[in-house]
Amino acid sequence: MKSFRPTRRTFLKTGTAAAALIGFGPTVLRQAAAQEADLAPYKAAKIDWQQASGETVTVAVIPASYFENLITLAPQFKALTGIDVRFEKIPPAQIRQKAVIDLTSKTGTYATHAADPMYYSLYAANKWVEPLDSYLNDKSLTDADWFKFDDIIPAWRAADSVDGKLYGVPYDGEVTIQVYRKDLYDAKGLKPADDLATFVSNAAALNTPNDRVWGTALRGVAGAGQNMYIYPSIFREFGGEWFKGGKLTVNGPEAEQALSWYVDLMRKSAPTAAANWNWPDIADAFSQGTLASYIDAHSSASVINNPEKSKVIGKVGYARWPKGPSGKRVSSIWNWGFPINAAQTEKKKKATWLFIQWAASAETQARTAHRFAGPTKRSGVNRTSIWKDAEYVKLMNGFGDNFVEATMATLQGDTDVDWRPRVPQWPAIGDTMATAIQSALSGQATVKAALDDAQRRVEPMMRG
Amino acid sequence: MTTKRFRFVATMVITLIFLLAWVFPIVWSVLNSLKTDQDVLAYPPKLIFQPTLEAYRDVLFGSGSILPNLISSFVISIGTTVITMLMAVPAAYALARLRFRGKKFAGFYVLATQMLPPVGIIIPYFLILRNIGWIDTYQGIILIYLSFSLPFAIWLLVSYFEDIPFEMEEAAYLDGASRMRTLWRIIIPQVRGGIAVTIVFVFLNAWNEFLFAVVLSGNTVRPVTVAMFNFVSVEQTLWAKLAAVSVLAMLPVVILGIIAQKNIVKGLTVGAVKGGGRR
Q: Sign of the CA dihedral B187, B192, B194, B199?
C-alpha cells in the first residue's frame, strides 16, 4: 500500500513534465505561445470573443498564488478578446470594504472582484451586481456547450446564488477537511475520526505538550472568516438551525453543545495560543511538527508540503469531517467568485462577462493549475472534470494520503449551502458571532453567556 | 547616599523593563528579516543563525518588488509635509499674532476638522476624488492627507509662536522690517525647534497612514503600508519578507527621528511648559 503513494519527487516531476509537455517552460516560448496557437481551444467556442474589443476592465483580487497564476495569463486574454484587463491586488481584510464602497457609490471602479460568497445576499438585495442567468443564456455571449457551466463544482455555484439566481461564477475554492499526521496516528493505532467524539479522543491521545506535540487546533481568532468559518460546521453537525420560526437563533441548545465541544477541544488538546490563531498559523505549526491534526481548508496542503518550510512531508493524511451527533458531516466551504458590477455600461458588462467566462473556463482553469509553468499549482480548481483528470489527480495526490478522495467526497457530499446564515446582514452577524466565540474560547465568558449576549446583539440587526 | 543610589538603580531597572518591552518587536523584526522561512518558525527561537539577505533581495528586486511602493510613500509623505508646512507656518503665525474678524471661529474651525472620525468621512472622500478623477493619484492622496495634517500642524505651531515675546517683533518693526520680513528673519529662527517637531510628526503621520491609503490608492500610487499587507496572503504569511519590508519601511522614519531628535526633545519640552502657562 505504502509504495503506491506518490512521493514528493514524483509530484514535482509530474509538474515539470506537465509544464514541459505544453512547451511553457522558457519565457520566450511562453510569450510566443501567448499569441496564436494557444487561443485555439478558446476559439472553439461559438461566440465572438472580440465583441467588446477596446474596453478595459479592472479586476480586484487578493494576493494569492491562484490569482497570480491567472494574472500571468492576462496577455492571452487580451490577444483573444482585445480587452485590457488590469488587476489590482488588495489584501483579503480590505477587499470587502473596498468593493462595498465602490458598489454603494456606484462608481464602477471594479468591473468585477474576488467576492466573498457570504456577501451576495447583500449585493443582490441592493441590486449592486447583475443576475448572471441572462449572460449565461445569451447565445451571443456564452456557448453553453463549450463553457459547460454545470461542470463547475455545484456547492460553490449554490454558494454564489441567492434564491436560485446566480450572481457570481466560482473561480477558485476550498472545503475544510481533516488533516492528520499519519505517522503519529499509526504509531498509536489510531484511525482518522469518523465522528466528533473520536476526533476529541484522538486529539487527547496524541496531546503531549511536554514533547511539543499538541493534539489538534482549529481557528480560534475572531473573524467572520476565521472562527466563524469553522464554528458553523460544528453547529450544523450538532443539528443546529440558524432560523427557528423565521427568527435568527444563535443561543439554542444545539448551539450550546456545539460551542462547548469547540471550547473543550481547544482547552484540552490545543496549544493555548490557538485561541488567537488563524489558518496560516495552524498550517505553520503543523508543518513544524507540533500538531497531530487539524480541520481546515484542503488548500492548506500546499503550505504543509512546502519543501522550504515543512518538516512533515510524506507524513500527512487526509479525511472528511467527522460526523456530528446529527449524523451529518458539514464542511465549511469557500470560493472566490466573480460577479458583474451593475454600475457599468452595457458594453463594459459584456467585457466583464467575457473575462469571467474566460477565467472560469475549463481551459483557463487547467492552464492555471496542472498545466501552469510556474512552481505553484492550484488545488482549488472549479471544475469537476479537472478533479477527474488523471494528470491533475496524480499531482494533487502528491500532497499526501487520501487527499483527492477526501476533498472530492467532501465537495460532493458534505457541503451545506445554508451552513452559515445567508442574509444581507451577514457581515455584522458574522462579526458578532466571531467575538462571542472567541470570548468563550479564551475563557472570558461561559458558553451560555457568550451565546446569550450574541443573541441580544443579532436580534436588532435582523429587525433593522 | 544609599537612598540616592537605590533610587538610581530602581529608575534604571524600571527604564530597562520598559525599554525591553518597546525594543523587542523591533529587534524581533530585524532578526526575522535576516532569517530563512524555516528559521523563522524554528523552536526554540534561534538567536544564533546563518543570516541571509534573501528576504531583502526578494522584496526589493523580486517579482513583487516594493521599491515602487517606497517611492510612492516618499512622494506622498514629502509632498504632504512640504505643502503642509508652507501653509501651516503663516496660518499659525496669523492665529497666534494677528487680530482679525472671525479669528476665534477660524481657530475652532481648524480644530473641528480634527474631531471627525476618519472612518466616517472616507466614503465622501472616495466619492469626491472619484468625481474629479483623482483616485489613485498623488495629488488626490496628498489632498486628503492635507485635510488632517494641516490642522494638526497649525495647532502645534500656534503654541510655539505664542511663546515668542512680542518685544522681538516690535524691535524688528521699529527697525523698519516688514511683517513678512519679520516673520521670515526673526520669528521663524526662534521656532526652529517647533518647526522641526511639526515636520517630523507630519511626515510620520503621512508615512504610516493606512486607512485612507488602502481605499484611495490603486495600482499606480500604492504606499508601502498598503503593499506590505500583501505578504500576508490567504494561503500563508511570508514572515521573513514581511519583516524585511517592515524594517525597510521603518528606516526613513528612524533616520528622520535621529536627525531631528535634538530638536524634538527641546521642542516638546518648550511647548509643554510655556505653552500651557500663556494661554
A: positive
Place of cell 476665534: B104
Domain boundaries, chain B: 66-278
Which residues in B lie closer than 8 A to residue A98 (C-beta atoms)?
214-215
Q: How far is B130 from chain A (nearest CA, A)?
A: 7
The answer to whether the CB atoms of B41 and A284 lie below 8 A apart is: yes
Q: How many angstroms separate the Cα of A222 from the Cα of each of A115, A431, A444?
A: 20, 8, 13
Continuous segment of H or E residues that includes residue A122? helix A120-125
Give the type of residue at A61. V
Best mutation site among B229, B235, B238 for testing chain A: the one with the most A CBs within 10 Å? B235
How many pairs of residues across A and B have Cβ atoms under 8 Å apart?
Answer: 72
Model confidence pLDDT, tens digit, residues A418-441? 999 999 999 999 999 999 999 999
B13 touches A: beta carbon within 8 Å: no
Residues 6+ apart with CB under 8 A from B25: none
Report whether pLDDT(B272) > 60.
no
Q: Which of A400, A414, A368, A391 is nearest to A153 (CA)?
A: A414
- Residue keyed to cell 518693526: B173
Closest CA to B135 of B209, B224, B77, B220: B220
**Euclidean distance between CA atoms A390 and A323, whole angstroms:** 30
Residue in A closest to B221 by C-alpha: A88
Whether the CB of B31 is below 8 Å from some CB of chain A: the reply is no
Domains of chain A in start order, with CATH, are 27-168+339-379 (3.40.190.10), 174-333+400-463 (3.40.190.10)
Shortest Cα distance, chain B CAs vs residue A257, angstroms: 30
Identity of the residue numbered B135? I
Strand partners, B144: none
User: Is the bond preceding B44 in cis, omega lying within 30 degrees of 0?
Assistant: yes
CB contact under 8 A, A64 and B41: no
Q: Which of A94, A107, A308 sits opposite B38 (nearest CB)?
A: A308
Dihedral, CA of residue A254, residue A260, residue A261 and residue A265, to nearest 10: 170
Q: Which of B123, B229, B235 sits opposite A64 (nearest CB)?
A: B235
The CA-CA-CA angle for residues A447, A450, A452, to 5°, reads 105
pLDDT per residue as tens digits for the range B235-244: 778 889 999 9
Select from 1.10.3720.10, 2.60.40.3500, 3.40.50.300, 2.60.120.560 the CATH code of B66-278.
Answer: 1.10.3720.10
Q: How far apart are CA B218 and CA B135, in angstroms?
A: 8
- Which residues of chain A have a Cβ shorter than 8 Å from any chain B Cβ? 62-65, 86-94, 97-98, 101, 104-105, 107, 109, 212, 280-281, 283-284, 287-288, 290, 299-300, 302-303, 306, 308-309
Looking at per-residue confidence, does B192 or A235 come out higher?
A: A235
> What is the H or E stretch that residue B268 is in?
helix B239-278
Residue A162 near residue A120 (C-beta atoms within 8 A): yes
What ipTM, to 2 d.p.?
0.75
Q: Which of B218, B230, B236 is nearest residue A280 as measured by Cβ atoms?
A: B236
Report H helices in A361-441. Answer: 362-368, 384-387, 390-397, 403-413, 426-441
In chain B, the residue whose alpha carbon lies closest to the alpha carbon of A92 is B234
Q: What is the pLDDT of residue B117?
A: 85
Residue A194's alpha-carbon distances to A40, A216, A416, in angstroms, are: 47, 16, 18
pLDDT reading at B275 higher than 60: no
Distance between CA atoms of residues A284 and A272, nearest Å: 16
Interchain CB distance below 8 Å, B237 and A287:
no
**Is the CB of A105 less than 8 angstroms away from the CB of B130?**
yes
